[in-house]
Amino acid sequence: SNSNVAFIGLGQMGARMVENLIKNGQKPRVYDIIPAAASTIQGATPCSSPEEAVDGADIIITMLPNGQIVKDTVSRILKAVPKNAILCDSSTTGPQVARELSKVAKDSNIRFLDTPVSGGVVGAQAGTLCFMVGGSQKDCQEAEPVLLKMGKKVLYCGESGAGQITKLCNNLILGVTMIGTCEAMNLGVKLGLDPKLLTDVVNVSTGRSWSSDTYNPVPGVMENVPASKNYEGGFSVELIAKDLGLASDAALSINAPIPLAAMSHQLFRTLMTYHLGKKDFGVVYKFLEGQALK
Ligand code: NAD
């Protein structure tokens, strides 16, 4: 497609997503609050403000830390965004923020989609992200060719906020399952099992999950996962805690009980008080093991 793309937020995820846009023939205008994040991307047009980045854009993608920053950014660029452009927020912000932004955008004749992603940093790098989209289905179809330059799937989930709800439900399962896997692995190891053997059995049995077979939290069981790199460079405890907090807010709004998610949220928050917030969320294993942490 010949869309003019702007991209705001060039962190762990955003920088890699932009690189895939470039590989696939786009020349995006990019902005990050840290100037070096924009100027070091070969093949992009670095901009010194978000307003400058959105100049002439048909599609604007934001990949920012949280909902407040996305809201501040959107209110700042609102006047500069060309009418009828599509604003895709791929940050994980929750359905409330998505619905608010959808309304704010509409009042300025801008189209808004919530387009959070799964696949993590690895998926962002490989261009295999899965986009979960909320908003108008027609707008989703229009944004799809650009999103597919950064991902392998664009899944339309429903009206505004539905992409965010889908993302939170997925991450609820992810957070709870990771903790369950860590608990079981620690129990088995403490009872004398070899963690590789236990993993092999679980992975052909009913306890299998992404946390056991793709992202095993026990150091040395798998290569090239954060657990085997001192829990560096993965999906941080802070981010899963944020997502479980958003899931709690959403659950409270309709009185849905989420007992295991609530407990998981609190466990990840506890890890943050032990200065493990920046570590990969598989570090729960180390925490339960009770060895010295650093
Ligand atoms: P990150 O902190 O690495 O990147 C955020 C970037 O935004 C940083 O480069 C920062 O400088 C920039 N930024 C902050 N404030 C800004 C502002 N006002 N204007 C412009 N730029 C600003 O975070 P990330 O890991 O890339 O995650 C981004 C979003 O994607 C989060 O909402 C996260 O929950 C979600 N997400 C992350 C992962 C993951 O595995 N890391 C996976 C799926 C979704």
Automatic annotation (TrEMBL):
| Catalytic residues as annotated in Swiss-Prot or TrEMBL | K167
> Which GO molecular function entries does the Swiss-Prot or TrEMBL record give?
3-hydroxyisobutyrate dehydrogenase activity; NAD binding; NADP binding
The pathway this protein participates in, as annotated, is: Amino-acid degradation; L-valine degradation
Q: What is its EC number?
A: 1.1.1.31
Q: Which keywords has UniProt assigned to this entry?
A: Branched-chain amino acid catabolism, NAD, Oxidoreductase
Q: Name one Pfam family in it.
A: NAD_binding_11
Q: Cite a GO CC annotation.
A: mitochondrion
* NCBIfam families in the record: HIBADH
Question: Known PANTHER family for this protein?
Answer: 3-HYDROXYISOBUTYRATE DEHYDROGENASE, MITOCHONDRIAL, 3-HYDROXYISOBUTYRATE DEHYDROGENASE-RELATED
- The protein's name is 3-hydroxyisobutyrate dehydrogenase
Which species is the source of this protein?
Ceutorhynchus assimilis (cabbage seed weevil)
